[in-house]
Amino acid sequence: MFEIMTVCTGNVCRSPLAEQLLRTRLADLPGTVTSGGTYDMGGAPMPDDAQRLAAENGVSADMSSAHRSQLISPARLSSPDLILAMAREHRRSIVELAPSRLRAAFTVREFARLASDATDDELRSAADAAGTDPSARLRAVVAAVASHRGMALPPESPDDDDVIDPYRRSWNTYQLSGSQLVPAVDEVVRVVRLAVAPA
């Protein structure tokens, strides 16, 4: 089984949406996707607008309404093969809590930007070299994506690697946040499928 974790501040808007999109789009593969926050919201549900955004992107209402926020911890960060932060501040928090996960942690838009530089063949060969275990295959592909750091063109602005936080803001801000997150998630799905799905 492979494991992916998504992380934002309160674990009520961005990271649950990323988690649920990945769970929905990778449902046929042998893996788990979880999420967490850097700030303890005490088991809070997703706001209505976050649930609406999830539904508009193909997530089942049951999945979104069942979500309750959770805090990240060094123990929870120790096992995922890929950790996707919603913004650079979350990636910093992840690396401070679990320094050994530096190479497995990216912002979701950074990962998508680096992965778009990697060909299907490059990612498949990295996975094949790692054997048949889904977790080992995904870790190998994540390392291949990480190797593009410093080679891929940097974003025009550092903010372009972040997903904007819509919490307690307008529906337009939720839509903007979704427009940044969803294409990045699509690229993650492509990478995970190349790593794990049977050829």
UniProtKB/TrEMBL annotation:
SUPFAM superfamilies: Phosphotyrosine protein phosphatases I
Pfam families associated with the record: LMWPc
Superkingdom per UniProt: Bacteria
Catalytic residues (UniProt): 8 (nucleophile), 14
Residue ranges annotated for the Phosphotyrosine protein phosphatase I domain, each copy included: 2-191
Signal peptide, first to last residue: none
Gene Ontology molecular functions: protein tyrosine phosphatase activity
Keywords: Hydrolase, Protein phosphatase
Family to which this protein belongs: Belongs to the low molecular weight phosphotyrosine protein phosphatase family.
Stated name of the protein: Low molecular weight phosphatase family protein
